[in-house]
Amino acid sequence: MKLKIRKNRRKPFPFFYLPIPILINKNKSFSIIRYFKFDESAIYFFNDNDQYNVNKLFGFSIGFHHNNSVRFGWRPNNDLTKIEIVGYEYVNKVRVPTIPICEVNLNQWYEYKLRYIEFHNQIEYSVKNVLKHHNVIHPITLKRKFNLGYKLYLYFGGNKKTPHDIIIYCRR
Fold first, then answer.
1. Nearest CA among 121, 124, 118, 120 for reference residue 137
2. 87 prior amide bond cis, ω within 30
3. What is the spatial distance between Cα 124 and Cα 52, in angstroms, rounded to a whole number?
4. Residue 16 above 70 pLDDT?
5. In terms of pTM, does the model score above 0.90?
6. How far apart are CA 155 and CA 8, in angstroms?
């Protein structure tokens, strides 16, 4: 599926995704797997600190997403040749510092897996293609046995909206 975020927008158009409720059991693993490919349109340059803002790829909330959530984030790397993939989290209404995961090449498919690991209270970020596998595990705290949340989807920003049309390819 081709997802297009038009210039000066934040979400793809047409936007078909609705907040789908999920129930996360503290004692059971939960994961979401998606496949994405970025092309040259995902590269942009802002001549200020907004260049380092994180765009959101996908993830899930535990309650409201600005209270507790985990997501894959992305932005152009420093030399504007690849896409930097990061972990993007809120814990107890506090934005956690960006978690570096890897850089991905343009025009190549990658598998992105976001997994809650039961009993260990950890989130696993996994990015892989046929040549490389990147894996980062980060602690998270679930206070209740059952946690209601919802799935989160592609979103551009940061502070600024898209400087031009951006196309990202997705498959499940």
1. 124
2. no
3. 23
4. no
5. yes
6. 12
State the residue for tokens 């309650």.
Answer: 63
**Which amino acid would we find at residue 70?**
V
Asked if the peptide bond before residue 97 counts as cis, ω within 30 degrees of 0, the response is: no
Cα separation, 84 vs 55, in Å, equals 10
Q: Which of 112, 104, 18 is nearest to 70 (CA)?
A: 112
Taking only the tens place, the pLDDT of each residue in 129-153 is: 988 999 999 998 777 888 899 999 9
d(CA 113, CA 123): 10
Q: Residue 76: which of 6, 166, 2, 152 has the closest Cα?
A: 166
∠ CA(88), CA(92), CA(93), 5° rounding?
A: 70
Q: Which residue has the tokens 């506090």?
A: 94
Quick one: which of 106, 62, 57 has its CA closest to 81?
Answer: 106
How many C-beta atoms lie closer than 10 Å to residue 172's C-beta? 7
Instruction: Provide the 3-class DSSP secondary structure of residue 40.
Output: helix
Q: Which amino acid is at 165?
A: D
Q: What is the CATH number of domain 2-171?
A: 2.60.120.200
Q: Is residue 12 a contact partner of residue 155, using CB atoms and an 8 Å limit?
A: no
